[in-house]
Amino acid sequence: MDSIVLIKIGGSLITDKTKPFSLEEENLDVIVDEVAYLFGKADFKMILGHGSGSFGHTVAAKYQTQNGVDVEDGSKVLGMAKVKEAATRLNQIVIRRLLDKGVAAVTLHPDSFMVAEDKKLKMAFWRGLNHVLGMPVLPVVYGDVIWDDKLKATIFSTEKVLAEIARLLVEEGYKVEIVHCGATEGVYDDKGKTIPLITLDNFEEVKNMIGGSAGVDVTGGMVHKVKTSLELAKLGIVSYITDGVTKGSLRRLLLEGVMEKTTKIS
Question: How many structural domains are present in the chain?
Answer without folding.
Answer: 1
